[in-house]
C-alpha cells in the first residue's frame, strides 16, 4: 500500500548541507508533506554513510538509527562515531505514516566536518607590517587608523588534477579570497564579529572547480573590520589589534590519492593597491588608477611585492562558522535623483537599507566621485547626516578612465536610503546607482498581511529593520558610530525576529558571544561582543542571557541551547541573589537604562529590575524542567515566587496600583505574572486608564513596548490594543509611517512635525526594538502561537483575535516541523 507521506527539507544544525561543522553530535531535522488531512509520522529511520554510494544501497556505515517509533522530526541527534576533520557524512530519512506504511526515502543531504583539532591548523597569521601600510594621503585628517588594504598572494603548483579541495580561512579583520582570477565564495565581511581574544570564526570553501594542474594563484585582500577598524562611539579604532591578518590553508586531494596542504606562512608576498583605506564606519576609498590587473592570476609578476610578516597562531580557539554568513541578499535600484545644490545630486532608493551601492560611471582618469550616505533629508532636500555622529559614511571612487567602470566597496557598510553624489561626470541617472542590501542571510520564515495598509507597512518596516541590523550580530543601528550588540534590544525583539526569519543559527552563534562576554562575577554585559561599553549589564539588558535561550527553546524546541548555556545562566542568577538578598534588585543595576526612550513616563528603575529578576527565575524554572533538572526547577520556582512576593510588598497597593503607575510598570507586572489573581483585573484597569488619559496613546519605551499589546489582549482589552496598533498620532508606529518611515525608528520622536529632528546625538532611523509588536501580529492578530507545554510547535495553538475593523488577516510561519498558515476574513456578519 502506497502512502502520500513525503520527507523533504533536510537540515543539519538548522543549516542545509553545512560545509564545515565542529559539532560532534549534530542534530538532524526534516519536514513532512502529505496530500491528506491528518497524516502524520509514526516512526522514522535515519541512515548516515561515509559516501553516497553506500547511502544509495540503503546502508548507513556511520549510523543506522533503525526504525524509531516517534513523531519527532526536529533535533534528532546523530548517534554515530564522531567525524574526522574534513570528513563528509551523507544522510537520508524514511518516515512511516499514520497507518504504518513507509514513505520513500528522502533525497540525500550531507554535512562536513571542519578542522576539529588545533593541530589540524598549519597556517600562521600573515599580513603586512605596519610600517609598510602608513596612512594614505587620501585618509581624512585625524583618522590615522585608515590605512591601505593589504593584497596577499602565493602561487601553488599542483602536480595533477584535484579530486577534492577545501580552503579554510579566517582573518583578524575581514577578508576576500581570490583563486585564479575568481572570487571564492559569496560571503562578505567574513569571518564576522566575535570577541577576537576569546574565539575566532573560520569559513570553509569548496574550491575543487577553481583549481587546475600546474600553477594556481591564491590571493586575499584584507580590511580592518571590527578587529582593527573603528567600532562604537567616537574615533576609536584598533580595539583588538593594530592591523588585519590572514590565516588560511588549502587542502587538496589529488587524483592519485596524495594530499597537498598549503598554508599561510612567510612564503606569501604582499603589497598595497587601489583600496587606500576601508573602514566599517568611515567608508572606503578606492583609486582605480592603482588597480593591479592580474594580481590574482598565476602569470602575474610580483617581484616587487614584499615578504609578509608571519606570526604563529596563539591559543585563541578557531571555531567553524555555525550561522548563515553575511551576504548581499537583494538589490534596491535608485528610484529618483534630485539636485538640491549645484554639483550635488541626491539619489533616493525608496527604502532605508543596510549595505552599500554599486556605482556605474564613465569619465576621465583621476575623476573623483564621492558618495555620502544618509537615512533622511533636511527640509531643503540636502542629505541629513548629523545623526551619524563620528561615522563619516563616505565612499570615494577615483576613475581609471577609458570606458565604463563599475565599482562597489568590499569592507564597509552603511545605513541609508539616500546617497549624496558629488564629482560625478555628467548628469547622474538613477540607474547609475544600485543599492546592495547586506546582512546575515537568515532565511525568510514568516509573512503577515491584513486589510490595513498601515499595518502592512509596519510589518515591512519591522522586517527591514531586522534585516538591516542582523549583521553577524544583532546590532542596534547600521548608520552611526555605534553598531554594537546591545542585549536589551535583542531580548525585547527576539520573539518577533523568530517569526520573521529563521534566526536559530544566528542567535545560537550570538549567544556564544554573550557567554564570552560574561564577567568573572557572573554578570552578563550590556553589549556582546563586550566592546566600548565594558560595564556589567543593566536590568532588561543583561537579562537577555536568560530570555533569548528561553525564547529559542519555545520557538524552535531547542533544549541544547539551554544545556549549552545553563552554567552561564545559573551564574547570572547567583550574581543577582548575592547582590540582592532581600530579593528586590536594588544593587548592581550598573548603567540602569530603565524603560529606554519612553515618552513622558518615568517607570521606576527598581520596579523594572525586580520584575526582570522574577521573570528570569520563572524562566529558569521552566528551562530546568525541560532538561531534567527537577531539583533546580523547584528552587527557581520558589525563588520566582519569593521575588514576586517581595515585588508586591514593595511596589503594589491594595487596589492594584504598581509603583510609578506607568504603562510599562503595569505591563511588566501583568505579563510576568507577578500579581495575585485578585489584583490583575484592577491593574489592567489602571493600565487602560493611563492609555485613555494620554488620548488613547502609548508611552512605553524599549522595555515595555513588546509587552503592551499582548498584556492588553490577555487582560480582555483587545480593543485598546488595536487602537494603539492603528493610531497615527504621535507617539505611535503609525506616526512614523505617515511621515515616510520604511524602517523602525529608534525613538518615537525621531522627527515630529512640530519640532523636526530630535537630538542628533542619538537619533537612528533604523533600530528594531520598538518593532517588538511584530510578534503580537503573528500570535494574536493572525493567531499562530506555541503551546508552552510542547515548545517548538509540536503542538500549534490557533487563536486569532479579530478586531480594529480589520476585515482579514493572514500569516504564514515556517516552524521546525513545516509551514503553518492562518487566514481569517470577516464579510458582513460572517467570520471565516
List the helices and strands and how they pair.
Layout: E1 6-12, E2 19-21, E3 27-33, E4 43-49, H1 52-56, E5 63-64, E6 68-69, E7 76-77, E8 88-96, E9 109-113, E10 125-127, E11 150-158, E12 162-172, E13 174-179, E14 182-183, E15 200-206, E16 214-223, H2 225-228, E17 245-254, E18 259-263, E19 269-272, E20 275-279, E21 283-287, E22 306-307, E23 309-311, E24 318-320, E25 326-333, E26 336-341, E27 344-361, E28 368-374, E29 376-377, E30 383-384, E31 394-398, E32 405-407, E33 414-422, E34 433-440, E35 446-450, H3 453-469, E36 470-471, E37 473-474, H4 487-500, H5 504-516, H6 544-556, H7 560-579, H8 605-626, H9 630-651, H10 663-671, H11 680-693, H12 702-714, H13 718-726, H14 733-738, E38 751-752, E39 756-757, H15 774-782, E40 784-786, E41 796-798, E42 808-815, E43 818-827, E44 830-831
Helix pairs in contact: 4-6, 4-12, 4-15, 5-6, 6-7, 6-8, 7-8, 8-9, 8-10, 10-11, 10-12, 12-13, 12-15
Largest sheet: 10 strands, mixed
Query: Rg, please?
Result: 28 Å
Contiguous low-pLDDT stretches (5 residues minimum) are none
Mean pLDDT: 97
Described by the principal axes of the CA atoms, the overall outline is globular
Query: How far apart, in Å, are the first and last alpha carbons?
Result: 37 Å
Assign the structural class, choosing from mainly alpha, mainly beta, alpha/beta, alpha+beta, or little secondary structure.
alpha+beta
> What fraction, in percent, of the residue positions are helical?
10-25%
Amino acid at each position: 500500500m502506497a502512502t502520500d507521506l513525503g520527507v523533504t527539507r533536510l537540515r543539519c544544525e538548522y543549516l542545509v548541507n553545512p560545509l564545515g561543522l565542529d559539532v560532534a553530535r549534530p542534530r538532524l531535522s526534516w519536514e513532512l508533506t502529505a496530500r491528506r488531512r491528518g497524516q502524520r509520522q509514526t516512526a522514522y529511520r535515519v541512515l548516515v554513510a561515509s559516501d553516497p554510494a553506500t547511502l544509495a544501497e540503503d546502508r548507513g556505515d556511520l549510523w543506522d538509527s533503525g526504525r524509531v517509533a516517534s513523531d519527532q522530526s526536529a533535533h534528532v541527534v546523530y548517534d554515530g562515531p564522531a567525524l574526522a576533520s574534513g570528513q563528509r557524512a551523507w544522510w537520508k530519512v524514511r518516515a512511516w505514516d499514520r497507518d504504518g506504511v513507509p514513505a520513500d526515502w528522502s533525497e540525500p543531504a550531507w554535512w562536513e566536518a571542519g578542522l576539529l583539532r588545533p593541530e589540524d591548523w598549519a597556517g600562521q597569521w600573515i599580513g603586512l607590517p605596519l610600517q609598510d601600510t602608513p596612512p594614505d594621503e587620501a585618509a581624512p585628517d585625524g583618522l590615522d587608523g585608515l590605512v591601505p588594504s593589504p593584497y596577499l598572494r602565493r602561487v601553488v603548483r599542483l602536480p595533477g588534477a584535484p579530486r577534492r579541495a577545501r580552503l579554510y580561512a579566517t582573518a583578524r579583520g575581514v577578508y576576500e579570497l581570490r583563486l585564479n582570477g575568481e572570487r571564492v565564495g559569496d560571503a562578505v565581511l567574513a569571518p564576522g564579529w566575535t570577541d577576537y581574544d576569546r574565539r575566532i570564526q573560520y569559513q570553509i570553501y569548496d574550491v575543487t572547480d577553481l583549481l587546475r594542474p600546474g600553477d594556481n594563484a591564491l590571493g586575499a585582500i584584507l580590511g580592518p573590520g571590527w578587529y582593527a577598524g573603528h567600532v562604537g562611539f567616537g574615533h576609536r579604532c584598533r580595539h583588538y589589534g593594530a592591523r588585519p591578518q590572514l590565516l588560511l590553508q588549502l587542502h587538496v586531494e589529488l587524483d592519485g590519492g596524495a594530499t597537498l596542504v598549503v598554508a599561510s606562512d612567510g612564503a606569501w608576498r604582499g603589497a598595497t593597491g587601489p583600496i587606500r583605506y576601508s573602514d566599517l564606519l568611515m567608508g572606503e576609498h578606492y583609486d582605480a588608477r592603482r588597480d593591479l590587473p592580474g594580481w590574482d592570476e598565476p602569470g602575474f609578476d610580483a617581484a616587487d611585492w614584499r615578504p609578509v610578516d608571519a606570526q604563529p597562531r596563539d591559543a585563541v580557539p578557531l571555531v567553524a562558522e555555525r550561522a548563515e554568513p553575511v551576504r548581499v541578499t537583494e538589490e534596491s535600484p535608485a528610484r529618483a535623483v534630485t539636485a538640491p545644490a549645484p554639483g550635488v545630486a541626491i539619489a533616493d532608493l525608496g527604502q532605508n537599507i543596510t549595505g552599500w551601492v554599486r556605482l556605474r560611471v564613465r569619465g576621465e582618469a583621476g575623476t573623483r566621485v564621492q558618495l555620502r550616505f544618509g537615512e533622511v533629508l533636511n527640509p531643503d532636500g540636502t542629505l541629513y547626516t548629523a545623526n551619524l555622529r563620528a561615522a563619516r559614511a563616505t565612499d570615494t571612487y577615483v576613475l581609471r578612465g577609458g570606458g565604463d567602470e563599475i565599482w562597489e566597496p568590499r569592507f564597509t557598510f552603511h545605513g541609508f536610503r539616500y546617497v549624496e553624489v558629488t564629482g560625478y561626470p555628467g548628469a547622474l541617472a538613477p540607474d547609475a546607482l544600485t543599492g546592495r542590501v547586506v546582512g546575515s542571510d537568515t532565511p525568510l520564515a514568516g509573512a503577515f498581511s491584513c486589510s490595513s495598509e498601515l499595518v502592512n507597512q509596519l510589518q515591512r518596516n519591522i522586517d527591514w529593520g531586522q534585516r538591516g541590523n542582523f549583521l553577524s550580530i544583532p546590532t542596534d543601528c547600521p548608520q552611526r558610530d555605534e553598531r554594537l550588540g546591545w542585549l536589551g534590544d535583542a531580548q525585547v525583539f527576539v520573539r518577533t525576529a523568530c517569526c520573521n526569519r529563521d534566526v536559530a543559527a544566528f542567535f545560537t552563534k550570538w549567544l556564544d558571544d554573550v557567554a564570552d562576554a560574561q564577567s568573572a562575577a557572573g554578570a552578563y554585559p550590556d553589549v556582546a561582543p563586550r566592546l566600548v561599553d565594558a560595564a556589567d549589564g543593566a536590568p532588561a539588558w543583561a537579562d537577555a542571557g536568560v530570555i533569548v535561550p528561553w525564547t529559542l527553546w519555545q520557538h524552535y524546541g531547542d533544549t541544547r541551547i539551554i544545556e549549552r548555556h545553563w552554567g552561564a545562566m545559573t551564574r547570572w542568577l547567583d550574581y543577582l541573589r548575592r547582590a540582592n538578598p532581600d530579593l528586590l534588585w536594588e544593587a548592581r543595576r550598573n548603567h540602569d537604562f530603565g524603560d529606554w526612550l519612553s515618552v513622558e513616563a518615568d517607570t521606576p528603575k527598581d520596579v523594572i529590575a525586580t520584575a526582570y529578576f522574577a521573570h528570569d527565575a520563572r524562566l529558569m524554572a521552566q528551562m530546568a524542567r525541560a532538561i531534567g533538572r527537577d531539583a533546580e526547577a523547584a528552587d527557581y520556582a520558589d525563588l520566582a515566587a519569593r521575588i514576586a512576593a517581595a515585588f508586591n510588598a514593595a511596589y503594589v497597593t491594595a487596589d492594584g496600583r504598581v509603583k510609578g503607575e506607568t504603562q510599562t510598570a503595569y505591563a511588566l507586572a501583568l505579563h510576568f505574572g507577578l500579581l495575585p489573581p485578585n489584583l490583575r483585573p484592577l491593574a489592567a484597569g489602571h493600565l487602560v486608564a493611563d492609555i485613555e488619559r494620554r488620548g488613547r496613546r502609548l508611552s512605553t519605551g524599549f522595555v515595555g513596548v513588546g509587552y503592551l499589546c499582548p498584556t492588553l489582549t490577555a487582560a480582555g482589552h483587545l480593543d485598546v490594543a488595536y487602537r494603539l496598533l492603528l493610531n497615527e498620532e504621535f507617539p505611535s508606529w503609525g506616526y512614523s509611517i505617515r511621515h515616510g518611515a520604511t524602517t523602525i525608528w529608534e525613538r518615537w520622536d525621531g522627527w515630529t512635525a512640530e519640532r523636526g529632528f530630535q537630538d542628533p546625538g542619538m537619533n537612528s532611523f533604523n533600530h528594531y526594538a520598538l518593532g517588538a509588536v511584530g510578534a503580537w501580529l503573528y500570535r494574536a492578530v493572525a493567531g499562530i502561537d506555541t503551546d508552552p507545554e510542547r515548545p517548538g510547535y509540536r503542538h500549534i495553538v490557533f487563536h486569532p483575535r479579530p478586531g480594529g475593523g480589520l476585515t482579514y488577516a493572514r500569516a504564514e510561519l515556517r516552524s521546525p516541523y513545516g509551514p503553518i498558515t492562518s487566514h481569517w476574513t470577516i464579510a458582513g456578519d460572517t467570520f471565516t
